[in-house]
Amino acid sequence: MLAALVRAFAPDFTDSVMRQASSLVTVTVRTNEPEEAPQSPPPANTPPDAEPEGAAAEAGKQARPRPVTAPKPAVPRPDPSPAPSVSSEGPDNASGAAETGEGTGAGGAGQGSGGGQNGSGQGSGFSRRLEKIEGNITSAGDYPRATRDLRRGHDVIIELTVGADGRVTACRVTDPSPDPQADTITCQLASERFRFLPALDAQGNPVVGRYRWRQRWY
């Protein structure tokens, strides 16, 4: 209603206002023309017989394997030892006696039971063995009573070293008893009481010998 009254009483004022309002909302629209795409450089001159990119190459030459020679097998040499003419239970290929052995003969340094000069068997090479001639251990009072039940029914073995004068120079226990104190006393009494005729070598000279003694307790 207000606009109709203004237009009726002041037509010029209305036209001027409409022109100003239309000038305020005028929008200018511009369109951008598309730019031309850059042209790629012309391809370089290529020979007419060149293969196109991505094509397969020619097949390679076939390889020829080198011949291989196998080595000659080694031939084992035969056993030079002759085979026995008659089969038996022995492990050797040939029979016969060796130059030296470990038998019971009386060789100079044999290990048998003969009586050689320096053998280590039962034959010691002595012209006379050690002989006990004095001393004994029989008194029960030589041992402590406190351990009597411990050693009763047992024994001890000692080994005596006897010098060229027939006296004991050393003693050691080879087979102990359940009573160590009694074993020590046995060695002490034997060293003090026992006397021997010394052993003689093959030339009749007195030499050092060894003698074993077993002491039993009842």
From TrEMBL:
Biased composition (Gly residues): 102-124
TonB C-terminal domain segment(s): 142-211
Membrane topology, from the record: Single-pass membrane protein
Keywords in alphabetical order: Membrane, Transmembrane, Transmembrane helix
Subcellular location: Membrane
Transmembrane segments: none
Annotated spans, Disordered: 27-127
Protein name (Swiss-Prot/TrEMBL): TonB family protein
Native organism: Altericroceibacterium spongiae
